[in-house]
């Protein structure tokens, strides 16, 4: 099997991808890295690979099979399309782009250039999500009814030193930065989003972008649910997602999985008081979802797997997110 030659563009968060590649956990090697900030030259020296401040020069002068792009969202399309023109496969960090027009450009460009475009929605590789999908597919959860997702973080002032994080037109705000993961998970588990409403607050920091938002969602298949998202709140509870089904419900956090399954058929009782039930708990070894995603991306390039998050998927997740953003800004119900 041919060893995949990888480059990384954008090295702040992208440094984590660099670390995963050089850890040699899969069939790939680091060929080059790029960032407009020359300080990252030291990272190139550390790993013995060429460093470029101009990623186009990297594309012209280095033979690479695939690239991981971790630049700010408003430049995803420009950088992604340039890589595709060189026949380079792209793992684009989430969100696919900051506008649907840019998402379309990336999708069209990947098809025209005959390269893979995978979007970095790495929670699709989370063990709890993988188990939930499996249990849905084999009927253990029954019909999906609804969900509730807690998504709370506490970010300090250092995080907002990059100005793009405080402004909406450059892709800032926890909805686009973090909520996109929650929206992608709910789409992956529950189905495509149809109608949304949302209320936001920015009272803590006073930036243009929200710091807290409460969201209601209805999916095309009738599943309904809510998301509470904040990047100025301590984590209140050690779990993130609940998914409620007709046969059982699951609670997931990044290291455990919990399924509550009444042992009787609902027809046998007028109301299930939860007395006779099976509770299954799995403590799972914490895995690096980014590493799993990268390993999978290499398998896609080698023809051994299909993309788990295609460009179209990334666009649908962005579309749901933009509908929530519109609902949040207008305080109106929005249907996609
Ligand atoms: N999947 C995840 O868990 C996760 C986590 C964090 C960030 N991200 C995503 O990664 C991307 C980067 O996020 P970040 O937090 O590192 O942003 P950042 O603004 O902190 O860093 C972006 C880096 O890209 C560089 N850059 C900007 N324009 C460039 C260009 N044209 N060519 C080369 N380099 C360029 C900057 O100098 C900077 O080093 C975003 O899309 C973000 O949503 C994903």
Topology:
Layout: E1 4-9, H1 14-22, E2 28-34, H2 41-47, E3 51-52, H3 55-61, E4 66-69, H4 76-85, E5 89-93, H5 100-113, E6 117-120, H6 127-137, E7 144-152, H7 174-190, E8 193-201, E9 212-219, E10 224-230, E11 241-245, E12 249-253, E13 256-262, E14 277-283, H8 289-301, H9 311-330, E15 334-335
Parallel strand pairs: 1-2, 1-4, 2-3, 4-5, 5-6, 7-10
Antiparallel strand pairs: 7-11, 8-9, 8-15, 9-10, 11-12, 12-13, 13-14
Helix pairs in contact: 4-5, 5-9, 7-9
The protein binds nicotinamide-adenine-dinucleotide.
Residues 9-13, 34-37, 55, 70-73, 75, 79, 93-94, 120, 122, 162, 177 line the site of nicotinamide-adenine-dinucleotide (NAD).
Structure report:
The protein has 336 residues and is of the alpha/beta class. The protein folds into two domains: 4-123 and 290-307, Rossmann fold (3-Layer(aba) Sandwich); 126-285 and 317-335, Dihydrodipicolinate Reductase, domain 2 (2-Layer Sandwich), CATH 3.30.360.10. It is built from nine helices and 15 strands. It has helices at 14-22, 41-47, 55-61, 76-85, 100-113, 127-137, 174-190, 289-301, 311-330, and strands at residues 4-9, 28-34, 51-52, 66-69, 89-93, 117-120, 144-152, 193-201, 212-219, 224-230, 241-245, 249-253, 256-262, 277-283, 334-335. The strands form two sheets. A nine-stranded mixed sheet has the order 14-13-12-11-7-10-9-8-15, with helices on one face. It has a six-stranded parallel sheet with strand order 3-2-1-4-5-6, with helices on both faces. Helix 5 links the parallel strand 5 and strand 6. Helix 4 (76-85) packs parallel to helix 5 and helix 5 packs antiparallel against helix 9. It starts with a strand and ends with a strand. Bound molecules: nicotinamide-adenine-dinucleotide. Residues 9-13, 34-37, 55, 70-73, 75, 79, 93-94, 120, 122, 162, 177 line the site of nicotinamide-adenine-dinucleotide.
């Amino acid at each position: 099997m041919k060893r995949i030659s990888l480059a990384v563009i954008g090295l702040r968060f992208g440094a984590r991808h660099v670390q995963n590649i050089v850890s040699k956990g899969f069939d790939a090697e680091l060929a080059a890295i790029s960032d407009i900030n020359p300080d990252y030259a030291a990272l190139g020296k550390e790993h013995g690979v060429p460093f470029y401040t101009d990623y186009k020069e990297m594309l012209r002068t280095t033979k690479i099979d695939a690239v991981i792009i971790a630049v700010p969202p408003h430049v995803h399309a420009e950088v992604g399309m340039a890589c595709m023109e060189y026949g380079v496969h792209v793992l684009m960090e989430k969100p696919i782009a900051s506008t649907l027009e840019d998402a379309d450009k990336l999708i069209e460009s990947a098809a025209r250039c005959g390269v893979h475009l995978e979007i970095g929605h790495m929670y699709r590789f989370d063990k709890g999500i993988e188990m939930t999908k499996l249990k849905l597919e084999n009927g253990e959860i029954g019909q999906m009814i609804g969900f509730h997702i807690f998504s709370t973080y506490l970010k300090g002032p250092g995080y907002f030193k990059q100005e793009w994080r405080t402004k909406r037109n450059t892709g800032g705000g926890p909805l686009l930065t973090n909520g996109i993961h929650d929206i992608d998970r709910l789409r992956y588990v529950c189905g495509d989003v149809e109608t949304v409403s949302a209320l936001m607050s920015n009272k803590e920091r006073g930036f243009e972008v929200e710091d807290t938002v409460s969201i209601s969602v209805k999916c095309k298949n009738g599943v309904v649910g809510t998301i509470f998202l904040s990047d100025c709140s301590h984590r209140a509870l050690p779990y993130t997602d609940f998914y409620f089904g007709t046969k059982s419900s699951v609670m997931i956090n990044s290291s455990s999985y919990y399924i509550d399954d009444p042992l009787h058929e609902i027809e046998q009782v007028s109301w299930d008081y939860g007395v006779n039930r099976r509770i299954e708990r799995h403590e799972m070894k914490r895995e690096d979802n980014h590493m799993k995603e990268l390993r999978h991306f290499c398998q896609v390039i080698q023809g051994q797997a299909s993309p788990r998050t295609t460009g179209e998927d990334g666009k649908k997740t962005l579309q749901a997110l933009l509908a929530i953003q519109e609902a949040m800004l207008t305080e109106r119900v929005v249907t996609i």
